């Protein structure tokens, strides 16, 4: 609780009190300290308060309005700077002062006081009550947004909603096939697993994956492919078993659930999980795992960002910097670290982020927001993203010690804009149900018996191009050919060819040619002709007689299949049982 107006003034020295009295008309500036304080209190709580307030400049009046409107009567420089992109003057440089030359208290100090114990600026309660009678409330901050983004040759627009609804099913199917290896200790996928997952992504990962040549090189690496196994584990749909992921009972049920509901559940679970701290992916900032408690709890960070997402209009592009500024201006702030001195770039002593100006909001909080939006919200289709290459996309870290060799501070630095999707509105609880937005299109197609799909009129939307790329190969500008290999690959990934059929039928005035209908029917039938039910181990026996004895015995025959004269195949999840049964027959199994 802040102190009274009189007590706050009593903490000032006499020269400062005289500076403040100079802003009051017809008030004597001579006398003892207690007399000066009484004159200030009488005037500020008297009838002339409004006239004194009117003498403030526009920025100072705005600062008073913000403090008066605050529930605790406090003024926050961080919030004010974020909202107005300037700060008010508390001292007048160069003005003649009663105390010393070069600086004088401005009239703003009559209204906004400083509590040295709490290290906070505030308006004393009795003064605030008087000001509320005439000071207009501050204008609410609006989050700036745009319907469209200007063309930029170097920028990629990624529409994530359809991708996420497809990929969540594909990822569950991939885990069902027991192909994803993760660390038992960290739950993180290995390089081989990331490559498998990258191949399954609808439109690929955000950036091409190039392995670094030197160990000190920076690597962007996978983003979506990295996020999916963590999301599924945190959501309780995948479990670690023997270094591999397996579907949990909830994961099995999710295969037949509406994908939008699955995505919503994954986001809600991610908001609370302690499985992973997204900031750990900002590898350039060292010391995160130092002794003692260095990083803050992740749930409050995510909650602040999610609350800010609730203020985003659906379907309109928002600049990331505007979003970050909005969070600070509205008090949706959070801490990333308990001790910035333990975080550093390059070298622990000289590169510490504890030095003034080193570990600011733009370095810590902005990088965390970027990571959560780009790697998790976008992967789940909550936001569409617009981005460029991260190299030198943001220059705000270049003055930090130890940053000379860094092309980027985080792999997410290239994110420039994002847009809340209808799926995102459903996931965040802003919409009661989810209805996929129909692709707005004026394109007219001609589907030929030769399996060619030609654009007759109009231009394919980005979503339409993405859909066609799953099933057809480009022949020339405006022309595609349905391709059996691509179609089978799409079906293997979990895509429904019925979506292609509906797309072609809705954009061609003529019925689909019989050859195209046959193509669709055969692909649908043959695309699921084989089903991978699990991984297996190939076991070589010493001779064909041993293989025959084991395959024919009632204890082991049900656990293996012959694979050639001397080889047996055993499902991975049956290896331990097979080993035990083989021992009963008098044989040993070595690796």
Automatic annotation (TrEMBL):
<protein>
    <recommendedName>
        <fullName>Helicase XPB/Ssl2 N-terminal domain-containing protein</fullName>
    </recommendedName>
</protein>
């Amino acid at each position: 609780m802040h102190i009274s107006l009189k007590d706050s003034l009593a903490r000032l020295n006499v020269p400062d009190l005289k500076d403040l009295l100079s802003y009051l008309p017809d008030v004597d500036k001579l006398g003892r300290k207690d007399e000066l304080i009484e004159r200030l209190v009488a005037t500020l709580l008297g009838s002339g308060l409004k006239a004194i307030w009117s003498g403030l400049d526009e920025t100072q009046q705005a600062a008073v309005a913000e403090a008066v409107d605050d529930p605790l009567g406090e003024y926050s420089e961080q919030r004010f700077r974020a909202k107005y992109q300037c700060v008010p003057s508390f001292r007048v440089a160069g003005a003649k002062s009663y105390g010393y030359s070069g600086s004088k208290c401005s009239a703003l100090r009559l209204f906004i006081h400083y509590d040295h114990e709490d290290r906070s600026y505030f308006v004393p309660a009795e003064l605030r009550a008087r000001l509320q009678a005439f000071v207009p409330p501050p204008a609410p901050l609006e989050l700036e947004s745009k319907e469209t983004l200007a063309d930029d040759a170097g920028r990629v627009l990624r529409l994530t909603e359809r991708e996420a609804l497809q990929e969540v099913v594909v990822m569950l199917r991939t885990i069902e096939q027991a192909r994803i290896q993760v660390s038992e200790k960290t739950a993180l996928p290995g390089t081989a697993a990331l490559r498998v997952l990258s191949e399954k992504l609808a439109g690929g990962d955000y950036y091409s994956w190039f392995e670094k040549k030197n160990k000190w090189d920076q690597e962007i690496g996978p983003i979506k492919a990295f996020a999916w196994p963590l999301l599924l584990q945190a959501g309780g749909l995948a479990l670690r078993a023997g270094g591999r992921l397996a579907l949990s009972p909830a994961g099995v049920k999710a295969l037949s659930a509406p994908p939008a509901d699955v995505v919503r559940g994954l986001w809600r679970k991610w908001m609370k999980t302690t499985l992973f701290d997204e900031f750990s992916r900002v590898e350039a900032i060292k010391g995160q795992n130092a002794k003692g408690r260095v990083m803050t709890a992740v749930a409050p960070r995510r909650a602040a960002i999610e609350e800010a997402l609730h203020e985003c209009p659906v379907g309109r592009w928002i600049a990331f910097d505007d979003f970050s500024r909005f969070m600070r201006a509205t008090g949706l702030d959070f801490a990333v670290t308990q001790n910035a001195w333990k975080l550093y770039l390059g070298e622990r002593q000289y590169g510490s982020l504890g030095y003034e100006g080193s570990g600011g909001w733009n370095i810590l909080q902005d990088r965390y927001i970027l990571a959560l939006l780009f790697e998790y919200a976008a992967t789940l289709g909550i936001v569409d993203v617009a981005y460029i290459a991260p190299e030198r996309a943001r220059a705000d870290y270049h003055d930090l010690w130890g940053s000379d060799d860094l092309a980027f501070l985080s792999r997410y630095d290239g994110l420039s804009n994002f847009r809340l999707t209808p799926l995102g509105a459903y996931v965040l609880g802003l919409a009661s149900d989810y209805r996929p937005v129909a692709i707005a299109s004026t394109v007219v197609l001609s589907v030929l018996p030769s399996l060619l799909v030609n654009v007759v009129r109009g231009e394919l939307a980005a979503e339409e191009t993405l859909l066609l790329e799953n099933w057809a190969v480009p022949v020339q500008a405006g022309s595609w050919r349905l391709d059996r290999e691509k179609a089978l690959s799409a079906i293997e990934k979990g895509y429904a060819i019925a979506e292609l059929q509906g797309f072609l039928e809705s954009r061609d005035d003529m019925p689909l040619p019989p050859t195209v209908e046959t193509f669709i029917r055969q692909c649908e039938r043959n695309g699921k002709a084989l089903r991978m039910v699990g991984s297996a181990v190939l076991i070589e026996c010493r001779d064909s007689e041993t293989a025959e004895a084991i395959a024919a015995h009632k204890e082991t025959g049900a656990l293996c299949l012959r694979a050639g004269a001397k080889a047996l195949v055993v499902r991975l999840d049956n290896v331990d049982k097979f080993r035990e049964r083989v021992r009963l027959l008098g044989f040993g199994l070595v690796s």
